């Protein structure tokens, strides 16, 4: 449940979220996201290592998207893990985030 | 990753039936025979749902729920209370303590799985 | 060619002039938007350019100016206001029209360049305001969540579920996603909108609070209750609204139509019953109504309006339910539109009607006798009218037995407390009607029978539990009509009659011999015999003196009958059969000394011809030897008249009548058969007359006396005893 922040260049950061994005981790993760929003013009969130995401985690992503829109920050979610895809599909949220979701062939349909 | 459910009940037979039903449906199960035993087994591992009886020796279900809610790792874990038909006040007490879900005893396996599935699908 | 060219030139000049005018008109409007004549000139500009362009086949101009013209037409008619926004669009349109004209004049056959075409369509969209592109531009934050199929999810076969989670939902362990996943197991989520309008800005947003709201279009065959149950555990942490699919509305309407009138009650209950609402829907709406009532903050709305506002049910369903409610109310109102009438007056009316029936019969007879064929039709139609009046008049005195039944609730409650038993009284058929005079007289026998059931029938809770029955016993009162009679049943689910005890007691009391050979039913019937109480320990409720024999006699005095059915361990049912009214009697008419008598039919046991071998009169000891049994008798002619002089020649018959356990023979001269008749009570003068209860006037004008069988039997028995005693 850690977030690894790589500053690619000035005002462009890559965040790798690992472990769960749940109510237990939401507070901590939000602090990291907020800080990154404050200091960057472009954010890439790598979700490949998200093992579990619940409503609290989803809310964080929704908050990120809204803040990024309002502050004209370029936000892209990449490498959605199966857990994230499952939630996006459940809520039909793919279009909202507008990021391409790559499905690997061996994923079972949920 | 299978979801983990803890069942707390002083009746070994109920524990067994619940465990068989839950395992059959694909959950991992941790058993505890009363509130105290259950608390000692809450060691930080991921638990997706705690099902607890109300009347138990050593520590009753309501106290257990209150105590579990104090633990950082379990304060947001959904709790389900096993109540009897007559104990409407117990249901409210359970809700106040933090167990928002409940199941009325006696129940059959499909009813249990239905109730559990609303909170955690396997 | 020159003609066409010059025409084109004229068009160009004209268009230029018109557009110039249009521009100045628009600028005028900016300061004075209400100038009607200026607006008119705008309209005319576009109108004229469109018309001329059409002549030359300049379709791009026609297409574009047509839209502008339409908008200006609306403005001219006051349907649309002109504002700065519209003026600027129109100015752009004016410039664009000029470009279109230029293009068409320069290269009339070439297709419109893309750039011009794009401007055309974008201006048309701005003019008409219809375009999605337009709204997209004006919305600062694109919110695909709400706009994608958004506000109008009107999928006809879908349940519309809206979930508004409260801030604490997540903290309470309720994850909205879990419920949605479970919901998916019940059907198909056709569409789902996620929104979070009240999620604060980054700094204030608490990641452990829940800000999520969902609107879901859900296809499923599950019932509303089932769908609601999905969110059962979230009920405290979420406002849940479930609107049934439009396709279900028709089902609900049909169900409402078919709803039994007994079930038409409060709106919420009705909708609950047909499954259009759940108990929670109703509770929420009622709470809301109650809050409004308490706070005076908002007007108290009818429950139906609240339900529609909360989007848990469709308007047509509520309308239909209200309609049904209203219809039933009206019907009930019509039913309860009573007039209180003095019972005495009613009795008088019924007597008069009785007289009328008799007069009518008499008149018919006379009409027949004199062969007045032309009067015959009139008489016949009057006769049928009179019969209708008689039936209606008798119905006036009919009352429902329900009130009498309800009185026993108290009796049952008190008695069961006293006896330490748990007994429930169930009442069925309370709406069954019978004559008020019968109702009054049935009260005592009913009380006795119910007490019997409570005392002897229902076992103690311990005994019941031991027998595998619920601790609470039940006594059932039931009434229904059956072939012109009312049947009243008192049924208990107690131990049933103990035939061994009855037999033992009956033998002890000398009622039967040990080798009785009686059937089970005959043994049960013994409880109607005098002095037989099977309960070993008599309580102060029953079994003291007044026995079932008295009950039976009272009921028979009402020309009714009583029967018993009992099954060991299952209970006892006593059925009382009574005539609906005491005003009409099914009688058996006999004659003696030229006078006619009527014997209530249900008291007639058999009729025997006197000369038959099986029957022999003993004149001195006053009994008839009937098949070896001594039967007391009365010679009706001798009893009511002087002992007749010219006797023996006539063929006499014996009518055997019974009352309770007693029987007697009435010796008569003639048997006239069954006769239904209206009873006329005797006047005050004859009130004390023994053995006569009333009279009726026959069609021929003669009076027939209605016999009091009970009195006659007693008389016969005493006379027999008196005469039988001295020789002994």
UniProtKB/TrEMBL annotation, chain A:
<dbReference type="InterPro" id="IPR002645">
    <property type="entry name" value="STAS_dom"/>
</dbReference>
<feature type="domain" description="STAS">
    <location>
        <begin position="15"/>
        <end position="110"/>
    </location>
</feature>
<dbReference type="InterPro" id="IPR036513">
    <property type="entry name" value="STAS_dom_sf"/>
</dbReference>
<protein>
    <submittedName>
        <fullName>STAS domain-containing protein</fullName>
    </submittedName>
</protein>
<dbReference type="Pfam" id="PF13466">
    <property type="entry name" value="STAS_2"/>
</dbReference>
<dbReference type="InterPro" id="IPR052746">
    <property type="entry name" value="MlaB_ABC_Transporter"/>
</dbReference>
<dbReference type="InterPro" id="IPR058548">
    <property type="entry name" value="MlaB-like_STAS"/>
</dbReference>
From TrEMBL, chain B:
<dbReference type="InterPro" id="IPR050595">
    <property type="entry name" value="Bact_response_regulator"/>
</dbReference>
<feature type="domain" description="Response regulatory">
    <location>
        <begin position="4"/>
        <end position="120"/>
    </location>
</feature>
<dbReference type="Pfam" id="PF00072">
    <property type="entry name" value="Response_reg"/>
</dbReference>
<dbReference type="InterPro" id="IPR011006">
    <property type="entry name" value="CheY-like_superfamily"/>
</dbReference>
<dbReference type="InterPro" id="IPR001789">
    <property type="entry name" value="Sig_transdc_resp-reg_receiver"/>
</dbReference>
<feature type="modified residue" description="4-aspartylphosphate">
    <location>
        <position position="53"/>
    </location>
</feature>
<keyword id="KW-0597">Phosphoprotein</keyword>
<protein>
    <submittedName>
        <fullName>Response regulator</fullName>
    </submittedName>
</protein>
Automatic annotation (TrEMBL), chain C:
<dbReference type="InterPro" id="IPR003594">
    <property type="entry name" value="HATPase_dom"/>
</dbReference>
<dbReference type="Pfam" id="PF02518">
    <property type="entry name" value="HATPase_c"/>
</dbReference>
<dbReference type="Pfam" id="PF02895">
    <property type="entry name" value="H-kinase_dim"/>
</dbReference>
<feature type="domain" description="Histidine kinase">
    <location>
        <begin position="382"/>
        <end position="582"/>
    </location>
</feature>
<dbReference type="InterPro" id="IPR051315">
    <property type="entry name" value="Bact_Chemotaxis_CheA"/>
</dbReference>
<keyword id="KW-0547">Nucleotide-binding</keyword>
<keyword id="KW-0808">Transferase</keyword>
<dbReference type="InterPro" id="IPR036061">
    <property type="entry name" value="CheW-like_dom_sf"/>
</dbReference>
<dbReference type="InterPro" id="IPR004105">
    <property type="entry name" value="CheA-like_dim"/>
</dbReference>
<feature type="domain" description="HPt">
    <location>
        <begin position="1"/>
        <end position="104"/>
    </location>
</feature>
<dbReference type="Pfam" id="PF01584">
    <property type="entry name" value="CheW"/>
</dbReference>
<feature type="modified residue" description="Phosphohistidine">
    <location>
        <position position="47"/>
    </location>
</feature>
<dbReference type="InterPro" id="IPR036097">
    <property type="entry name" value="HisK_dim/P_sf"/>
</dbReference>
<dbReference type="InterPro" id="IPR005467">
    <property type="entry name" value="His_kinase_dom"/>
</dbReference>
<keyword id="KW-0067">ATP-binding</keyword>
């Amino acid at each position: 449940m850690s977030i690894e922040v790589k500053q690619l260049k000035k005002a462009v950061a890559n965040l790798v979220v690992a472990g769960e994005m749940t109510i237990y981790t939401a507070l901590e993760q939000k602090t990291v996201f907020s800080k990154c929003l404050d200091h960057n013009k472009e954010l890439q969130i790598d979700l490949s290592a998200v093992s579990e995401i619940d409503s609290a985690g989803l809310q964080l992503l929704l908050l990120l998207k809204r803040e990024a829109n309002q502050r004209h920050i370029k936000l892209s979610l990449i490498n959605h893990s199966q857990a994230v895809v499952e939630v996006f599909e459940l809520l039909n949220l793919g279009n909202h985030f507008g990021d391409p979701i790559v499905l690997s062939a061996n994923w079972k349909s949920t | 990753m299978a979801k983990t459910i803890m069942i707390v009940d002083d009746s070994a037979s109920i524990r067994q039936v619940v465990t068989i039903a839950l395992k059959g449906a694909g959950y991992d199960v941790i058993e505890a025979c009363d509130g105290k035993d259950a608390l000692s087994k809450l060691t930080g591992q991921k638990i997706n749902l705690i099902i607890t009886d109300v009347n138990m020796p050593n520590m009753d279900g309501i106290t257990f729920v209150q105590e579990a809610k104090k633990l950082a790792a379990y304060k947001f874990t959904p709790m389900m209370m096993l109540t009897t038909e007559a104990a409407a006040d117990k249901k409210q007490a359970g809700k106040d303590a933090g167990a928002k879900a409940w199941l009325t005893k006696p129940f059959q396996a499909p009813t249990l799985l239905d109730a559990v599935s609303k909170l955690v699908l396997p | 060619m020159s003609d066409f060219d010059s025409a084109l030139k004229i068009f160009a000049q004209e268009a230029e002039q018109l557009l110039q005018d249009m521009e100045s008109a628009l600028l005028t409007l900016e300061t004075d938007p209400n100038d009607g004549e200026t607006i008119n000139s705008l309209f005319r500009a576009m109108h004229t350019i469109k018309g001329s362009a059409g002549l030359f086949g300049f379709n791009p101009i026609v297409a574009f100016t047509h839209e502008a013209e339409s908008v200006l037409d609306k403005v001219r008619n006051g349907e649309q206001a002109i504002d700065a926004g519209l003026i600027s669009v129109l100015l752009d349109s004016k410039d664009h029209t000029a470009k279109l004209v230029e293009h068409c004049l320069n290269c009339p056959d070439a297709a419109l360049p893309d750039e011009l075409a794009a401007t055309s369509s974008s201006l048309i969209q701005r003019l008409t305001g219809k375009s999605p592109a337009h709204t997209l531009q004006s919305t600062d934050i694109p919110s695909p969540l709400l706009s994608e199929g958004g506000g109008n999810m009107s999928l006809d076969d879908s349940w519309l579920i809206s979930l508004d989670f409260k801030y604490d939902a997540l903290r309470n362990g309720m994850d909205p996603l879990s419920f949605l996943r479970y919901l998916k197991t019940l059907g198909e989520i056709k569409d789902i909108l996620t929104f979070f309008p009240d999620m604060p800005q980054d700094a204030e947003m608490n990641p452990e609070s829940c800000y999520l709201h969902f609107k879901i279009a859900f296809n499923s065959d599950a019932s509303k209750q089932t769908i609601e149950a999905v969110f059962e555990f979230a009920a405290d942490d979420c406002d849940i609204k479930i609107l049934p699919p439009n396709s279900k509305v028709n089902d609900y309407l049909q169900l409402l139509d078919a709803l039994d009138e007994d079930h038409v009650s409060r709106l919420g209950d009705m909708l609950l019953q047909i499954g259009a609402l759940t108990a929670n829907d109703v509770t929420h709406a009622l709470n809301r109504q109650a809050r409004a009532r308490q706070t005076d903050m908002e007007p108290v709305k009818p429950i139906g309006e609240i339900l529609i506002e909360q989007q848990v049910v469709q308007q047509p369903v509520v309308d239909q339910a209200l309609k049904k409610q209203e219809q039933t109310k009206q019907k009930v109102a019509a039913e309860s539109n009573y007039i209180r009438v003095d019972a005495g007056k009613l009795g008088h009316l019924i007597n008069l009607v009785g007289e009328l029936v008799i007069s009518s019969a008499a008149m018919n007879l006379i009409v027949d006798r004199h062969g007045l064929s032309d009067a015959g039709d009139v008489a016949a139609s009057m006769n049928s009218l009179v019969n209708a009046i008689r039936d209606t008049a008798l119905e006036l005195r009919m009352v429902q037995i329900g009130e009498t039944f309800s009185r026993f609730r108290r009796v049952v409650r008190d008695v069961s407390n006293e006896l330490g038993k748990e007994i429930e009284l169930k009442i069925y058929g309370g709406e069954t009607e019978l004559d008020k005079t019968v109702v009054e007289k049935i009260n005592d026998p009913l009380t006795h029978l119910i007490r019997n059931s409570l005392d002897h029938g229902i076992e103690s809770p311990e005994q019941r539990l031991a027998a595998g029955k619920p601790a609470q016993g039940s006594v059932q009162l039931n009434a229904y009509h059956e072939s012109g009679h009312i049947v009243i049943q008192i049924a208990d689910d107690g131990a049933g009659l103990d035939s061994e005890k009855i037999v033992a007691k009956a033998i002890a009391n000398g009622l039967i011999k040990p080798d009785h050979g009686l059937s089970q039913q005959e043994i049960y019937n013994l409880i109607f015999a005098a002095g037989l109480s099977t309960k070993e320990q008599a309580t102060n409720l029953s079994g003291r003196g007044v026995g079932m024999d008295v009950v039976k006699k009272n009921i028979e005095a009402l020309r009714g009958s009583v029967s018993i059915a009992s099954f060991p361990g299952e209970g006892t049912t006593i059925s009382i059969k009574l005539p609906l009214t005491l005003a009409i009697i099914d009688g058996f008419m006999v004659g003696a000394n030229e006078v006619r008598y009527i014997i209530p039919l249900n008291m007639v046991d058999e009729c025997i011809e006197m000369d038959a071998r099986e029957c022999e009169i003993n004149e001195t000891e006053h009994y008839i030897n009937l098949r070896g049994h001594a039967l007391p008798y009365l010679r009706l002619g001798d009893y009511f008249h002087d002992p007749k002089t010219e006797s023996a020649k006539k063929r006499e018959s014996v009518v055997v009548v019974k009352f309770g356990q007693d029987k007697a023979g009435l010796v008569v001269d003639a048997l006239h058969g069954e006769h239904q008749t209206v009873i006329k009570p005797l006047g005050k003068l004859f009130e004390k007359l023994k053995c006569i209860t009333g009279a009726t006037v026959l069609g021929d004008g003669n009076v027939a006396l209605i016999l009091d069988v009970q009195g006659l039997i007693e008389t016969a028995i005493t006379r027999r005893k008196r005469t039988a005693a001295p020789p002994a």
